[in-house]
Each structure stands twice: as C-alpha cells, then as structure tokens.
Amino acid sequence: MTRYIRRIAAFFLLLLAALLVNSARIQLVEADSLDRNPANRRATVARYAEPRGPILVDGKAVTGSRDTRQPLRYERTYTQGPLYAPVTGYASQTYGTTLLENAEDALLSGTDPMLAPFPFWHEITRSRQPGGQVATTIKGAMQRAAYDGLAGRRGAVAAIEPFSGRILALVSSPSYDPGLLSGTGTAVTDAWTRLTGDSAQPMLDRAIRQTYPPGSAFKIVTAAAALDAGTVTDVAAPTDIEEPYVLPGTATVLPNEAEGCDRASLEYAIRWSCNSVMAGLGVRTGLTGMLDTARKFGFNDSGLRIPSGVAASHFDTEMSDDQLALSSIGQFDTRATPLQMAMVAAAVANGGELKYPYLVDRTLAADGRVVSRTGQRTYGRTMNPLTANRLRRMMIDTVEDGTATNAAIDGATVGGKTGTAQHGVGNSGLPYAWFIAWAQAGNSGRPAVAVAVVVEDAAADRADISGGGDAAPIARAVMEKALGR
Amino acid sequence: MTATTADPPPAPPVPRRRGVELALLVGAVLIAVLGYLAVGLGKHHALPPDAAVYGAGLGALALLAHLVVRLRAPYADPLLLPIAVLLNGLGLVLIYRLDLETPGDSAAPTQLVWSTLGAALFIAVVAFLPDHRVLQRYAYLSVATALVLLIVPIFFPAVNGAKIWIRFGGFSFQPGEFAKVLLAVFFAAYLATNRNALAYTGRRLWRRLPWLQLPTGRVLGPLVAIWLLSVVVLVLERDLGTSLLFFGLFVIMLYVATGRTGWIAVGLALAAVGAFAVGSLEPHVHSRVQDWLDPYASINAGRGPGQLAQSLFAFAAGGLTGTGLGLGHSILIGFAAKSDFILATAGEELGLVGLTAIFLLYALLVARGLRTGLSLRDPFGRLLAVGLSAILGLQVFVIAGGVMGLIPLTGMAMPFLAQGGSSVVTNWAIVALLMRLSDSARRPRPEPSRGAGAGLDGDGDDRHDNRTEAGS
C-alpha cells in the first residue's frame, strides 16, 4: 500500500501546484487587466471612499459630502445647488462629472499627484490623498444678484474683471440642483430623466455652452474693426450711408428701429443702435478686417477653457457682402456665448487688451497648502488703445443718453450696449434681449467689471423684449455688487 | 521502528513533541487575534472592543484541546491541532470581517458556536475513542447512518436549489457533511477486509492490458452499490460538489487498497461521462460550466459581472501582498461571500502571499494525514487516514479551483474557513480521527501482543510495506 499512498501524495502535490500556479496567474499576471475591467467596481468604490474636496466661493465651501454608508460611500452635496450649478457642474456616481467638477476632478477626488507631499508618493504607497480644494474667482454677491435678476427666466449672465480676466459671475437660468444627481438609485435616474427631458433645459449652461445671435451688441466689434481698419477716422463725422439701407446685391431693405440714422455718425449709430450705418461700415471694412477683429475678441476659438470648455462663438469665414452686412449687426450666422460678449465688453473697458478669462483662482490641498495658482494671461490685443478709448466713450454715451439709460449707476462710470437679436426661421422666434456693459467706480483708475446678460424670455410680450428694458437692469444689479454697493 | 527481534534493545524515547504543539497553538491563536485586531483597525480605525474576550475564548478552547491531547493521545502529530485552530481562527476573522459589510446578517457568532461544538467533538473523540480499530466494527452501522443522513434532507425544503439542509429551530445543518466521514470509515473497513479479493481475483478483460482486470461481482457489488446509491441521492439533491467528492474519495481509496491503476482509468472515464451528462442535462450545472468557460460573458452581455467574475476581480485586487484585512471589497461577490467564496476575501485582503500560506497549511494537513497513513501498520487505519486526508485535499482543490476559475464551480465549503456549522464540526471530527490515528502510528509498539494481530492482517503487500519502511 505504501507505494500507492505515496502516489496519492504525489497526486495531491500536483493539485497543490495547480492551485498555486493558478493563483499566481490571476493575482500577478492577469491582475492588471482584471483591475481595469470596466465591470470591476473597485476603482469606483475607491474613488468615493473619501469625501470629495470642496469648491470654494469667497473662501467658503459651496459643496459638501454626505456619508451614505453604502459601498460608494461619499456623495456630493451642494449648499446652493441651482445658484452655482453653472460653475460647479455636477459630480454624480451615476452620470460622471461636468464643468469644474470635471475639469478639477483629479484634484477634488485626491488622485492629482500634485497633492502628494513628495514626488512618486502615490506610486510607492498606492494611496490617495484627501481631496483638494478649488477656490473659484466667483463673487457670491454678484452671482446672487445675477441669479435673482433673471428670476427664473431663460437666460444667462457672465461677468469678468477686465484687467485680470477673473470670472466674477456665471449664471444660467433656469437652473437645477446638481445634488439631485449625486448618488445612485432610482431617485437619481428619475431626476436625470426629468431634467434632461425638461423643455426649459435647466442643465444647459447657457453662460458658456450656449451660443446666441448677439444682435446689436455685436456692433461694438464692428465699430472696433471699422476704427482699426481706418474705415472711420472721425467718430463724430457723418457717414455717407443712407437710410433705407439695401443689402448689397439684393433688393432687401435693412430696417432701423431708431430715428435719425440716415448718414449718421458712428457715435450716433452706437448710441441709438443704427442697423444701416453699422451694416454699411462692416461691408466697407470688408470680410478680412471684420474676421480679423472678431477673432481677436475670441470668436471661432474652439479651444477656450476656463478650465471648463467654452463653446466656440462663431463668425463666418466666407460670406457675400449682404451676409457680411447682416453679420456686422450680429445676425446671419454670427453667434456668441454670453461669456464671449462679456469678453468684448471687458476688452473695450481694459483699453483693448483682452485677458484670458478664468474661473479657478487657486487650488489647495486639504490642509490649505496652495497647490497651484492661476496666473493672469493676456488673450491678445483686440484693438488700438485709441480705438478702445473712443469705444469706451461711445458706450458711456449710450448709457448716459441712449438706449441703455437703465444701466446707469450714480457715482460710477458705466458703458454699455444693448442688443435685440432676431432668430428663428424668418425671424419667427422671440428675439433675445442682450446687454453688455462695464463699470468703473468714480474714484478708481480701472474698470471693476464687464458683464454680458442675455434674456430669452419666451413668456414675454415680443415688444417688451429689448436689451435696454430686460437685460440692462440685471447688468446694473450685478455691476453695483462689483462696485461694492 | 523495526523492533521485530525477540530481545529488544532499550529503545530511544519516542519524541512526543507536545511542547511544539503548544508553542504552535499559541502562535495560531495569536495570529487569529491579531487578524481580528487588524480588521477593526482597517475598517473602523479602532480596536474591536471584544478582542480580549474573543482571544481568550479561542485560546481556552485550544488549550483545553491541547490538554486532552496530552492526556489521551500523547504521541499524536503535533501539527494537526495547531493547523486546525489557525484555519478555524482565520475563518472566524474573515467571516467577522465580512459581517461588517452586512449589518443585518452576522454569521461570526453562529460560526463561533459551531466551532466550539466542533472543538468539543474533537475533545470527545480524542478522549473517548481509545483505538481507531474500534471503528472497523461499526462499518455497516456507519454506512447505514450515512445513507439515512443523506436521504433525510429529501423531506426538507430546498435552499438555493439544493435539498441538502435539515432545519429545526433556528439551526440548520447539512447531514451530507457527516456522511462523508462515515462513508470513509465504511470504505476503509470494507476495503481492508476485501482488498485481496479485489486486487487478485476476477477476469482480465483484454490480454494486452494486464491492469484492466475486473474483480468478481460478489466482492465489488456491495461497494459499488453503496457508492452509486449515495452519489445518486446527492445528484437528486443537487449537491454535486459532495457527489464529486464521494466519487474522488471512492476512486482514491480503491486505488490505494488494490493498487490497480485500472481503477483510476475506469474512475476517470466514468467521471468524464457523468460530468458530461450532468453538465449538459442539468441546467444549474450547465450554467456553471458556461460560467467557467467564459466568466465575463454576462459582462459582455451587459448584465454586469457574475459571481465568478467578481471572485476573480477580488483575487486580482489582492495582488501580491493584498489590500490588508478589512480594506478589500470582496463583498461585491454577493450572497455566498461568507461561504463558498470566502477564499476570495482571503485572496483580496491577504494577497498571493496569504493565499499561498493558506494553501500550504491545507497541504501540510493533507501531507501529515497521508504520512500517518504511511506509518500505520493496519490496513484499516492506513485506508482511513488516506480517506480522511483525501476528503480534505479534494475539498480544498475543488472549491479553491472553482472560485479561481480553474475548474467549474461546485458548491462546497472550504474546510474550517467557510461559514457553515456542519462543515466546521465535521472537519473537527476529521482532525480528531487523524489525531487518534497519528497517535497509534507514532506510539512505540508493545511488540509481542501486537505481533499476532499484525500477522492476521498481514499479506504480501504488507510485508513489502515493512521493507520499504525499514529502508526509509
């Protein structure tokens, strides 16, 4: 029997070898591919095992974390969700991340190598750091003023500090509570279905992800192009552009809303928003000159990041003269995000130098150590300083005695431009009310804020929709907060 | 120990190694208690409040078992008890750790109660079973009890598709677990008595193949009948893991008793036919075979990972050194995480290093059992030792291979490690019997009285055995 028992022992030795080889195969050779299998929830579990770092406004957290005691342990909470949704985006265990939550995800979730106390710390310890903090450039009071000003109407507000590029307010309305999407389960999927199916598109970030025809607000760009190109040398001198203006090569007449636009000066055309003069000047400046200036302001730039991606604003690169005429007054295919139009106002206010807009002031580790600081960057010089000076004057005139008197603030210098954009097939849609402006405190050497407001209020009476009536009061409220009032 | 001369010289004292056993026991209890503390630290960053009680309980049990061994089986193998305590303690730690993930369903206290019962049974066997050969007398009682135990669950409702449980009060147990020990006793007794007839009589089927020789039906008949009956009952109860185990046990014991390689060939052929038939006809088994062939099929079909895929993910997450106790996520495996798939938790949290250690502990247990079989002189004892070791070894391979995708999954309990009362108690009984057997094997023999008995059992094969042992 001994021989046979020995053989049985050898047989069990063989089985042991098979087990050991097999476990080495799984745990060493195939481990990486199994770890990376998308169905393996371990990476997700690890991701939510620690509280996510906060996003700060005015140094205070506007996000939090809730311990659910579930496998995906910590869920994101938002203290004023709808107000800051266009800034933060959402961080959902079911639907991923958007906007700042997405752009700064590595830092917030603690995987950013910059959070580690030493280089290669993660590689050695296989550990995560506590989530870092993202301090935004947003001013809470301005954000609140913009949000309250829109009062649930469809629209958006973007405000920039002209000399630095810091984004001070970024509001989209109607908004939603990103906290509804934080976790998992049917409550979250139901909220998602409801939000994505809502015709008011509450999850659309209108301030940076939606483009609108800018209408008359675009006339600032046209004026800058005309002045820089030498099409106009004296802003007060009458032009020879007659009213009614017929689009070149067509029999179509371009109507004016304003009085006295026949052969009006550029100054007058801006103040009273004359379509005929600005269309004619755009055509005279030519496609190359117009396109060149539009690009300097940021149109056709699909790479703009704040750090969330900004939808590219659009100015056609190939157009006939009649199309160019329409484009010069912000119609035809011309489209702009509210942030883009705030950049136009900011460039004028800042003497023609456009700063790159940014939303993250600095990032911090959990213990408050600064991880990175966003430096100011110049986007480009949009126009001559002299041109900028003339445009500033014209925008001030528009507020003091023009279409934008609703934006005036006592004791401050305010420049603005209204816009009412037609859209839809045959202009059948309700027009969008635009207002772009900047404001400078009386005792200050430089403008405090540039702002763009768009209101697309489907419920309003068509005749009531105008940049001066609907959008300018919102802009004024935002600028007052920027001036500290 | 070839003390066959009439005038024995003063034999050197046989080392009992009880001190070694005690030291190893202290180590085993210490490892389990430290593991318990590690779970608390890993999971809650705090020491579990009841660690002292837990450690004291486990230590007291181990100490009591050790004292009984000292008194009643002083020559027993010093490794068996510490390995059993270590595996049982490790199992309790893993179950306690998984309990933390399922707040409504804690299994560790129940497992502790069953472990205590198991240890009590161990003590009882070691204390009150004077000699393993007593069991040989009860061979037919054993097989009758085994068959009754196997058949009874048919009258109880099925749980998770298998009718292998008996429930009364709050407790439930699997009689099939006890049946395997009783069946091993019967096989050992029957084969010890009839192995010559099985090995040397009968017809050769084909002249060219001398190893293919069928014994007479009169000898083989009852054996095959009982084995077939139990396997058929188990198949009816859908306990395919245990039927596979019985099959392997039968083939191994028959081979050791007769030395006929033909049995292995016939056994493998039968197993292949049976496995193919069950695998293609029985839907439950069929799905498991499918799972084994492609563990990721349900993922690719968009239905998320199945249990086997989750188990593989757990092993992979462990890597070389593991995530640390309490820091893995093997609970993702689902409802069988504490029972069938407990090894995945070991693989994830202790890593390849810990898993290898566990496999080596089992291997050592099996090796010491087979070693006992080699050292014993009576055929019954040898066959029983081999059978009990084979039960442990086969079970470990089948369940470990199953949860790691090496072979199709069959529902079985990892000895000592997995949640399951009847399993723990049975494994303690197996270790107790091995202790008793090893005590006989290593005890210095009072020669004159034993010589006659050995002569009765003796035959050509045994004499051959003695030669080999003298040579080794």
Automatic annotation (TrEMBL), chain A:
GO terms for biological process: cell wall organization. Residues 155-480 form the Penicillin-binding protein transpeptidase domain. Residues 52-134 form the Penicillin binding protein A dimerisation domain. GO terms for molecular function: penicillin binding; peptidoglycan L,D-transpeptidase activity. One of its GO terms (cellular component) is plasma membrane. Pfam families: PBP_dimer_2, Transpeptidase. InterPro entries: Beta-lactam/transpept (IPR050515), Beta-lactam/transpept-like (IPR012338), PBPA_dimer (IPR054120), PCN-bd_Tpept (IPR001460). This is Penicillin-binding protein 2. It comes from Streptomyces paludis. The lineage of its organism: Bacteria, Bacillati, Actinomycetota, Actinomycetes, Kitasatosporales.
Automatic annotation (TrEMBL), chain B:
Residues 441-472 are annotated as: Disordered. It is found in: Membrane. Keywords: Cell shape, Membrane, Transmembrane, Transmembrane helix. It is a multi-pass membrane protein. GO terms for cellular component: cell division site; plasma membrane. InterPro entries: FtsW/RodA. GO terms for molecular function: lipid-linked peptidoglycan transporter activity. The keyword Membrane applies. One of its GO terms (biological process) is cell division. Its main location: membrane. Residues 461-472 have a biased composition (Basic and acidic residues). The chain crosses the membrane at residues 22-39, 51-71, 78-98, 110-129, 138-158, 178-198, 219-236, 242-258, 263-281, 350-371, 383-407. This is FtsW/RodA/SpoVE family cell cycle protein.
